[in-house]
Amino acid sequence: MNLDLLEALLFVHGDPVSVDQLALWLDLPSTGVEQQLQALDEALQSRQSGLSVQRVAGGVRLTTHPRLQDALAARLGRRAPEPLSHAAWEVLAIVAYRQPITRLEIEAIRQTGSERALDTLLNRELIEEVGRKEAPGRPILYGTTARFLREFGLDSPSDLPPLSVGGETTSSQE
């Protein structure tokens, strides 16, 4: 198979594409797609391309090479979004490691209100409502989004680094 077609499919699609979807489009088995993805990544690296293959959010996408981020931002005049507040970072970490989780559970961990931080994270599409807890009042459950995974370069929440609390190491989704 010509790697140009795979590269073009990833470029045109933009968002992460599953290996199964690529297999369907390319009429290849998943193992063949994996081999082609590896070959494409190696070809891009060998020619020092401005693009790279990234696995994120359960799929694969073509993205600009990380070494070019600063240069592109400077030339395109992009402004970085306002940084997240300390409270928003705390809430995001709690949601990422404890999802699905309710606002009251978050506030019990933080020992303070979290409504504003939750609103910020919802507006930035880093977290989302993922359901309702089977409890009195059926409180909203929050979890991270595909955008969160893309922003942090993760394939799934299980790829979060282990969390060290009080000398003990735990991972997400325990």
Automatic annotation (TrEMBL):
<keyword id="KW-0132">Cell division</keyword>
<keyword id="KW-0963">Cytoplasm</keyword>
<dbReference type="InterPro" id="IPR005234">
    <property type="entry name" value="ScpB_csome_segregation"/>
</dbReference>
<feature type="region of interest" description="Disordered">
    <location>
        <begin position="153"/>
        <end position="174"/>
    </location>
</feature>
<dbReference type="Pfam" id="PF04079">
    <property type="entry name" value="SMC_ScpB"/>
</dbReference>
<dbReference type="GO" id="GO:0051304">
    <property type="term" value="P:chromosome separation"/>
</dbReference>
<keyword id="KW-0131">Cell cycle</keyword>
<dbReference type="GO" id="GO:0051301">
    <property type="term" value="P:cell division"/>
</dbReference>
<dbReference type="InterPro" id="IPR036390">
    <property type="entry name" value="WH_DNA-bd_sf"/>
</dbReference>
<dbReference type="InterPro" id="IPR036388">
    <property type="entry name" value="WH-like_DNA-bd_sf"/>
</dbReference>
<protein>
    <submittedName>
        <fullName>SMC-Scp complex subunit ScpB</fullName>
    </submittedName>
</protein>
<keyword id="KW-0159">Chromosome partition</keyword>
